Amino acid sequence: MVLNMILWVILAAFAICIFFRFPYLYQDVKYIVRNLRIRRRVSHYIQNNYTIVDCFLERVKKQPNKPFLLFKDETFTYQDADRLSNQAARALLQNGLVKQGDTVTFFVTNEPMFVWLWLAVFKIGCSAALLNTNIRSKSLLHCFKCSGAQVLLFFFFFKSPDLEGAVEEVLPELLERQVTVFSLGSKQTSSGIHGFIDKMRNMSSEPLAEDLRSHLNMHSLACYVYTSGTTGFPKAAVISHTKLWRFVMILRSCGLKSDDVLYVSLPLYHSAGLAGVTGAIDLGITVALKRKFSSSQFWDDCRKYNVTAIQYIGEIMRFLCNTPKKPNDRSHKVRIAIGNGIRANVWRDFLNRFGNIQILELYGATEGNIILMNYSGKIGAVGRDNFLHKWSFPFALIKYDVEQGKPLRDSTGLCIQVPKGEPGLLVAEISVRAPFLGYARDLQQTEKKKLHDVLKKGDVFFNTGDLMLIDKDGFVYFHDRIGDTFRWKGENVSTNEVADVITQVDYITEATVYGVEVPGNEGRIGMAAIALKDGHTFDSEGVFKHLESFLPAYARPRFIRIQSSLDVTGTFKLMKAGLVKEGFNPSAIPDPLYFLDDREKKFVPLTMDIVHAVLSGKIKI
């Protein structure tokens, strides 16, 4: 009896010591066990050539009447989704417009039709190119060409006809390339654009033959997901069926269950939105789909649909925290928030205001081969450094010379790992287990993302482009972007590439682009300092039209500063530090300043009244 008591005391003391020595051990073990199970599941799927469509069809058999998609006041069951996607598939196959192995391009907003089409394309053994609906003109054409597709599907609704206008702008070139263009809208479209809805409604909803996708394997192309497109020329990241499963498993890794309801307000052309819908199929859960994020409607939607899990990017959380406080702020069923880019101060404000919601901050890139997750709730961290990550996704933080723009190497030519507590460039080893598939039809950009001879001769690592830091407790923190990059509206913007677009204007001799902080806003907004040819004046409307053609809205500089010449270093590198520090204050800057006015569709002289309106939020940027 006494011996047993002593033994229990010793065990309790040992457990207490372990807890204080390793306070996150339980969470680490729980996360590792869950992800080992997920790895086995994915390996089984890969070995058996089991795609996400196979998973969907299995869900249809098991739970045909369970709600799959909630949109506005409509409810679509898993069986509804199956039948509608069967009709869409047959409409695509009719007259041989689409055949096995083809790529179909989507230029579609968040609508149930996006999901039906996506399923349809997979059911007939094809792949999808998911275009960012913000791109226009030359960017739109470039992205379409990257896909190699011959069919373009686009959707517009009566409140937002701009997608139709964007397609009509490039329609002559599309028709010249013999591209078939379908409108998913409900009204008559212009000549050269075919209606799809009526064609689809006349099709049978019976199951399609499995032989249509018999040629697929797990290395086959599933879809192209485009990078942010900092110059309006985004890169098409190649997503195979194996890589798609890694997107799919994010929700399972986050601990979602079959009775959860996921709110998706992020665009479905984005990897996060795609992961939400595909992850829902894997778990058999219900998705509440929003056409576009609305901070004023967010929590009302969560209450309406009994949402238990939400997705976010950092901007979304800040927008929610900035809405007027309401007595029912904590009246909801949300238990989990999954996303990336939330700042520590916003994280605290969000929890204090909206209640005890588990925030699972992720780190990753669409084309990347590494994913990190902060599963412990440590505010500000993006992940944990544990042996599972080192085993699944071998990575390292290496010393990086920001001035030279390249990693530091030792006398043997290998990279140098940084100690804990010091920021370093995050690189992840490219292997069969963690591949980097690159970008479609862009070998040069694909190779630029690779680093050779990192930890040993002959190895190859993926360069994330991010400086990270690991603290003494093993938490990983985002530190900064390397190179001339800033983040705005949840998108990464390359300043060098934006400057290249600006200098395409023939009378602009030089341009340097940088991000400046605007109080009350996440990230940095774009500003450009430019020099003009002698005798030329700044064409505010012409420059606006040029930028609109080549750049998505978030990458267009909102402020322009005109200088007689731009300062350079001794090695002729443009100097930006002083420009960043000076910002956009007209009272402190002698140079002419301009502000991009979306309503006027031109750059207007920047006055203190405009500055005050921007800082107070009267002018939305």
From TrEMBL:
GO terms for molecular function: long-chain fatty acid transmembrane transporter activity; long-chain fatty acid-CoA ligase activity; nucleotide binding. Pfam families: AMP-binding (PF00501), AMP-binding_C (PF13193). It comes from the Eukaryota. SUPFAM superfamilies: Acetyl-CoA synthetase-like. The chain crosses the membrane at residues 7-26, 113-132. Residues 497-573 form the AMP-binding enzyme C-terminal domain. Residues 58-378 form the AMP-dependent synthetase/ligase domain. GO terms for cellular component: endoplasmic reticulum membrane; plasma membrane. It catalyses: tetracosanoate + ATP + CoA = tetracosanoyl-CoA + AMP + diphosphate; a very long-chain fatty acid + ATP + CoA = a very long-chain fatty acyl-CoA + AMP + diphosphate. GO terms for biological process: long-chain fatty acid import into cell. Keywords: Fatty acid metabolism, Ligase, Lipid metabolism, Membrane, Transmembrane, Transmembrane helix. Its EC number is 6.2.1.3. Coiled coil: none annotated. PANTHER family: LONG-CHAIN FATTY ACID TRANSPORT PROTEIN, LONG-CHAIN FATTY ACID TRANSPORT PROTEIN 2. Belongs to the ATP-dependent AMP-binding enzyme family. This is long-chain-fatty-acid--CoA ligase. It comes from Hippocampus comes.
